[in-house]
Amino acid sequence: MLEIAAISLNFGGLAALEDVSLKVAEGQIFSVIGPNGAGKSTLFNVLTGIYPPATGAIHFLGRKISKLPPQRIARRGIGRTFQNIRLFGSMTVFENVLVGRHTHIRYTYADALLHTPRYFCAERSARDKVLDLLNFVGLEARAEELARNLSYGDQRRLEIARAMAIQPRLLLLDEPAAGMNPRETDALKALIRALRDERRITILLIEHHMQVVMAVSDRIAVLDHGRLIAEGAPAAIRENPAVIEAYLGPGAKESLA
Amino acid sequence: MKTKLLSILLLTLACASGAALCSAPRASWTLLPVLAVLFLCLTMRLPRTVRFTAGLGLLLIAIPFAGFTNTFLFELGIQIGIFSALALGLNVVVGMAGLLDLGYAAFFAIGAYTWAIFGSTQASYFMNGNFPLAGWPYFYLFAALAVLTAAITGILIGLPALRLRGDYLAVVTLGLGEVVRVLANNLDHPVNITNGPQGISPVERPPIPWLMDLLHIFNPDASPALGYALFFYLLVIAIIGLVVLINVRLDHSRFGRAWVAIREDEIAARAMGISLTRTKLFAFATGAAFSGAMGAVFAAKQRFISPESFTLLQSITILGMVILGGMGSIRGAILGAALVTLLNIEVLKSCSDFLNTLRQTGFVLDLGFFQYNFALLPSQLEPAKYERMIFGLILVLMMIFRPQGLIPEVRHRLELEKDD
Amino acid sequence: MRIPSIIITLLLALTFTTRADNQVIRIATCCPLSGAQAGLGEYIKLGAQMAVEGAQPRFAELGFNLQLFPQDDQATPDVGVAVANRLVNDASVLGVVGHFNSGVAIPASEVYKDYHLAMVSPANTNPKVTDRRYANVSRICGRDDVQGPVGAEFAVNELKAQRIFIVQDKTAYGQGVAEAFRDKAKALGANIVGFTGTEEKSNFSTIVRLIQVHKPDLVYLGGIYDQAGVLVKQMREKGIEAVFMGPDAFDSSEFVKIAQDASAGTIYTTVAGPIDQFPAAKDFASNFEAQFHRAPESFAPYAYDAANVVIAALEAAIRANNGARPSRQAVCTAIRAVTMDGITGKIAFDAKGDRLTSDYYIVKLETASYPGKAIKVISSAPPQ
Amino acid sequence: MSGDVLIQILPSVLLEGLLLGFVYAMIALGYTMVYGVLGLINFAHSEVFMIGAVTGAEVYRHLLPHVGNPYLLLAISITTAAAVSGGTAMAIERLAYRPLRRRGNTNRLVPLITAIGISFFLQDLVRLIEGMWHNEFFVNYPSTPALERTFQITEMLSIQMKAIIVITVSLAMLVGLQLLVTRTRLGKAMRAVAQDAHTASLMGINPDQIISRTFLIGGALGGVAGVLFGVLYTKVDPFVGFLPGIRAFTAAVLGGIGSIPGAMLGGILLGQLETSAGVYLPLLTDGNIGTEYKDIFGFLILVLFLLFRPQGILGRKEGEKL
User: Are residues C138 and C150 in the same domain?
Assistant: First the structure.
């Protein structure tokens, strides 16, 4: 479903991504791991159109997306969350998700001004969808709170709900477990699986929390210094000497367990 | 129970203050309780019907009746109304969409000139036709046209400006605002379109025979001046009502949400599929449209238009109103506009008139240990001279002690309540 | 909500004003008292203040308390109109001396007209002010379309200026007088080598350069002394010897202070004759100086006369009304009937509200000192 | 107008543009430096400039009878003006901006409105003081023959002593500032705070102190610019800051706001553009487009330029911080 072919990107001479190629199949939970500064978030930003790749091409559902602006890519069906949470802080939880429905609410300026039946119809169905998503991530009780007042874990979940509101085929999750406590992490694992199993969304995941990665991933790619150094099933990655060497350093094998 | 009690209290206060105003329309203290009640109508958490009844009752009954004796009330109302509409328009751009626009007065100018040129003999300098266009439909037609031209100008100015972010946008809008003013000041040659610094006058007002007929029922010697004061007062209130309605509806639509989203976080907004350019242009055009309409009203009401009304200072003052009231807050924009206008043309002026009267009557302030004869007040300390300084001071203090504005933005809870 | 409520209450509490009793008669002055034009507006207020304070004893005898009511119109039309609306609703205000800017006076007088409140302008030279033929609007100063041509005639016929460069300040006043000057000079056969506007107040390097290129023998500025002083100084510094000429807004000692040596030789047209020609003016000048510690300048004499016209009309109207408070309408009518010797010459109004005949003085600053010397007097009636 | 004249006047037009450009550059530095460390447009900077201009004029005027040497007199004026302006800028930061910063996480428009309020306040305050002092509120730089001595280079090109002084002083200031920023500890600290105030504070830099000093230096430069402006164009008043302020701000944006060499370049460029446009537009269009268009000409150039290079001439393209 997603094909990344030999993309590279430089920041002022520094290679952030070098010749990275990946294939993500429909229905997979695909993780990208690597040490800090390995280019994982940069990869996400290239995928979502924030940085256009210097070379290479990205195809999504068979169509080329590598020159499109972020909003167009979002409309093609790629949703994302952000490593350092980017919610609309002064909007309520409910509204945050409602913004995600933006492209699916179809009425004109005039409809909004005149409050036509079309307006009410679209708003109502959007509202139902939002309530459904809030239920799904377990934030229905906090719908009226301002996003900025939520706890860290709740904010992460809200970002997921918001990203799901655009009805993505592919969801990019950037370190969703960062800052979560063990109980929240467990809930997150369930949530990620539910996303795939119940909502049929393919997932591309960046995560430092190895326990989560190993528990949910179908496949894992490892980036180091902007290069892809390994790709394979979790078990294979766990055993891959290049990964252990480059990514974790000698003697760190236990922590992957 | 408590709500009910407060509602009754508010309505009683409204009646009492309205009655007081009508009984002594010229004594400026009677305006005080009316303004206080209107303020409460804006801010109190009471059922909407109660606040509307009290507010509209004062605005549409008490003030017009008092205004028959003291037309300054109309002038005050009109100016507050005009600036409220401008503040509401700018609130869309700056408050909701977070785009810093320092050239907003340009759209006001576009609207004003749209009517002034065709509502006076000015148009005959560059085209054939029978000017001024004085019949009754023309003004309303051109007011609508002014909305359109202002919105189009908004898009034209927005197109280049919106490629830029944040503070760059500020300086570019400032520049383009100046461009509009300088053009208005200079386009008297080679073709005389705006009549340059001489301004355009007299600008036609729409005929109001129906209102005069109505007025004559109450007061047989009502002059056209009084009629027009009342007319513009009512017109402005009607437009404000419309503008508020549009604002509220947009706020509750995907457009309003997109504005706030790009204000909060452009990157996240784009990840939601929101197109920045389209959204920003919508904001610019919407904001500009409001001021275009008021521009046409302003031209007709002043009967005179010159570039002096559309300076950078004007843009800044409107921005000050929005921020003082509370960015993104509709009620805040109205309150901000009302306060700044009141301050500028009533409070500070009354204050200096008061001190001046003390000086002329040789009033001696006697605090026992300290005595001051106001007759000795030096001319350099003429209070009328320091109105702008006080305005500046208020802005600074306000920003330090209440930066979120008088009525901070409240994100709505309506989405869920509707189902209940 | 506590803080805003307190602020609002405090602000609104300030709107308490003493209520005017029936014996108070107020003459309002409307001019910019704050902002960049405050310096000029100040003289209008002071001139009127002199007149009002001089008349207070006479009014006391009539049983009235005459007061000056200074207002700041901030030189902006919307504030000006708001002020006008305040004034028409204050029954004690029976006359207005003002405004300073024609751009403010025109919309404000629309308001005065509706309430028959008399406005006597000390400074609005724009023809439109009286050309609308409002019964309540009169002026003491001359008209742009008279003083411009008077200047042009002098420049072309007497100074034999052949190449003229004209600068104007992009205000209603400056542009009006500059265009009137241009049209007349052209008709008299002079060559207008340049006509340009500028809103600049301090840096005239581009204009000076243009003047240098066009080599005029006379430079005319439709503008005010603060601009004129700087322009002529920068011209002379660049070695431009052309005659420098302008309208009545040059008439100020500040002009000499700004331009210093460069002010020598400057010529301007004015309706206010030099003080040595009017004994009354001399007294006014010394009293003014004693009271305000500065010389009466720019529009102070006009404002003094304007206020005196209102005062004279008030007295006449009070007498006509058997000592009772006159109506505003009566004051308007009385103003048009006033004939008096003011410090700016003989004052009487025509049907439009212009002065019947005005003496226009051509004044030259022979040396860099103020006041200058009247080198020619031209009597001219306003166009009908 | 024959082409010869257009070329003949070119050197002197360029010279005048350069003089104006230097003044703009020095004011623009104040905007850009504050923007660099705080990310805020200090709209009150035009009033800092004005206070420098007025202070310089008062000093110059009052010491004229006592100090014989005009160069020494000018030096005293410039120093005093720099001190007063720098102090004012610091005071503005302390009284108005720091409380806002302390509060943290406020809207970025709030300091902007504060700045506008301060601007209004300072304009009328200076007017009040000047008015109380000597009745009128403009101040002159009195003519001094030594400063106005003219050196005729060619028939169409001459340069005055004061122009030479303006060029020398501004060049010295600009070079000095560049050295200060690149070579000294304070400069490094300023750059560190501009990069990331939080990290800088972890490195033992006190951001408040650095910000305060940035205001001091920017304000002092504004003050010097004020005196030079006054010496060049004679008259200053409490409202003199507005136009140069806006233009210098435009220059700072043109050069890339936040960049010190950018502000210098932007200032000089804008000065040149404005002056040449003011002279050549009317000459080439036979007076149809007069000098009155020179102000918006600068703005139009800015808009066009920013369309193609949104970060300004020397500004860094901001990477999105994700």
Answer: no
Q: Are residues B140 and B153 in the same domain?
A: yes
d(CA D10, CA C358): 47
C125 shares its domain with C258: no
Distance from CA of B389 to the nearest CA of D (A): 4
Note whether C186 contacts D: Cβ–Cβ < 8 A. no
Q: What is the pLDDT of residues D301-313, one digit of tens each?
A: 888 888 788 777 8
B56 lies in the same domain as B165: no
CA distance B173 to A250: 58
Chain B's closest residue to D119, CA to CA, is B392
Q: Per-residue pLDDT tens for B348-368?
A: 788 778 877 777 777 777 777
Residue D44 lies in a domain: yes
DSSP state of C379: E
Do the Cβ atoms of D292 and C197 come within 8 Å?
yes
Predicted model pTM: 0.90
- Return residues 113-172 of C near B (CB < 8 Å): 114-115, 126, 128, 132, 170-172
Q: Under an 8 Å CB criterion, which residues of B touch A?
A: 246, 249-250, 252-255, 257-258, 260-261, 264-265, 267-276, 282, 328, 409, 411-413, 415-416, 419
pLDDT value for C89: 87
ipTM of the complex: 0.87
Distance from CA of D262 to the nearest CA of B (A): 15
Residue A257: burial class (beta carbons within 10 Å; 0-12, 13-18, 19+): exposed
D230 to B114, C280, D57, D166: CA distances (angstroms): 41, 40, 7, 11
Looking at B251-255, B351-355, C10-14, D59-63, which range is the least confident one? Answer: C10-14
Angle at B374 between CA B372 and CA B380, to 5 degrees: 115
CATH number for the domain harbouring residue C150: 3.40.50.2300
**Contact criterion met (CB < 8 Å) for C89 and B71:** yes
Bond prior to C99 in cis (omega within 30° of 0): yes
State the DSSP H helix or E strand holding residue A203, giving kind and residue range, or none if neither. strand A202-206
Q: How many CB atoms lie within 10 A of CB D168?
A: 11
Per-residue CA distances from B263 to A161, B280, D108, D277 (Å): 20, 10, 12, 38
Chains A+C touching (3+ CB pairs under 8 Å): no
* Number of Cβ within a 10 Å radius of residue C291: 14
Which residues constitute the domain of residue B239?
72-419
* Nearest Cα residue to D21 out of D202, D235, D276, D211: D276
* Homologous superfamily of domain range A2-77+168-256: P-loop containing nucleotide triphosphate hydrolases (3.40.50.300)
* Neighbouring C-beta atoms of residue C69, cutoff 10 Å: 26
Q: Which of A185, B116, B407, C202 is nearest to D243 (CA)?
A: C202
Indicate whether B211 and B331 sit together in one domain.
yes
Whether residues B98 and B36 fall in one domain: no
CATH number at residue D292: 1.10.3470
Looking up tokens 């390994």 gives: A230
For residue B152, the model assigns a pLDDT of 94
Shortest CB distance from D116 goes to which of B166, B172, B316? Answer: B316
pLDDT average, residue stretch B74-78: 92
The boundaries of the domain holding residue D80 are 3-308
